[in-house]
Amino acid sequence: MKLQNLNALITGGSQGLGKVIAENFVREGANVVLCARHAPELAATAAELAGKYPGRKILTQTCDVADEAQVKALAEFALRELGSVQALVLNAGVLGPVGAIEAVSLAEWRRAVDINLFGVLLPCRALLPQFKRAGAGKIIILSGGGATSPMPNLSAYAASKAAVVRFMETLALELKEFNVDVNAIAPGAMATRMMDEVIAAGPDKAGKAYFEKNKNWKEKGATPPELGAGLAVYLASAESNGITGRLISAQWDVWKNLHTHRAELAGSDIYCLRRIIPEDRGKKFE
Fold first, then answer.
1. pLDDT at 215
2. Using CB atoms within 10 A of its CB, is residue 164 exposed (0-12), middle (13-18) or buried (19+)?
3. S-S: 244 plus which of 34, 79, 181, 268, CB 3.0-4.6 Å?
4. Comparing C-alpha atoms, which of 17, 34, 47, 157 is closest to residue 88?
């Protein structure tokens, strides 16, 4: 098993991709603390996993990842119950308001940034002292398409996800001397609650093209969440040690043997957010 005796804290772990990641971690030998905002869903997920994988520690705590006090209490709970945490998986996120920038609720826009960006920052801050003391650790952040391309009518989601990736790259450099690997995953378009929210918003708010894409994915098949969960397991495992500061697509990138390219990655900007200049496209502006 790839994660034997590893202790992990997974945010947004009660449903969707977070639940699939949790199951993959437990199957591979990990003990987990799962958090989400709704206790009944957490309890149901924990009971389901405990029934499938007896002998593992599967613990839960309700938490709003945008609330500093609640996140501090969550980290203290995980450290107290597990003794230590070797992997932090930051999956909690929201789509945010759907619609034109000047028309959407500003309060909802701010709330999306609170959850998607501060919901990554706060758990990292809470567990960084422990990772530094241990001289090892894995931080895995769930990003998405909003990080790499504009998303009209989903401005809060796109902006917050792009910010998360730059935060990941920055944190990876800060933690390199402590042997803590920090990476982000683009899991692909999955048939989750967010897809349902886009479809429910309709073509007028979501934009006709993006609405039709989501409707087509929903009806004809989206990206299996197992792809993103498999990549999360890989990035939490010892096999990926030294791979850090990367945004990796679960669907499109060849990641299962990425450790064989560890030295090439370390000296490059592959899988990073970077500015494109004319020369990169074979042009020269005078």
1. 67
2. buried
3. 181
4. 34
- At residue 221, the pLDDT reads 64
End-to-end CA distance of the chain: 57
Q: Where in the chain are the domains?
A: 7-188+224-271, 194-222
pLDDT along the chain (286 residues), means of 10: 97 95 98 97 97 95 98 98 98 94 97 97 98 98 83 93 96 98 87 71 74 68 86 98 96 94 93 93 94
* Residue labelled with tokens 């030294």: 242
Give the pLDDT score at 198. Answer: 73
Q: How far is CA 177 from the centre of its chain?
A: 23
* pLDDT number for residue 284: 95
Q: Is 275 exposed, middle or buried, given 0-12, 13-18 or 19+ CB atoms closer than 10 A?
A: exposed
Report which of 219, 190, 194, 214 is spatially closest to residue 203, judged by C-alpha positions: 214
Q: Rounded CA gap, 193 and 15, in Å?
A: 9
| 157 noted as active-site residue | yes
Domain 7-188+224-271: which CATH class? alpha beta
* Nearest CA among 235, 234, 246 for reference residue 270: 246
Residues 6+ apart with CB under 8 A from 215: 199
pLDDT the model gives residue 191: 56
| pLDDT recorded at residue 148 | 81
Distance CA 87, CA 235 (A): 9
Whole-number pLDDT of residue 11: 98
Instruction: Output helix, strand, coil percentages for the chain, rounded to the nearest 5.
Output: 55, 15, 35
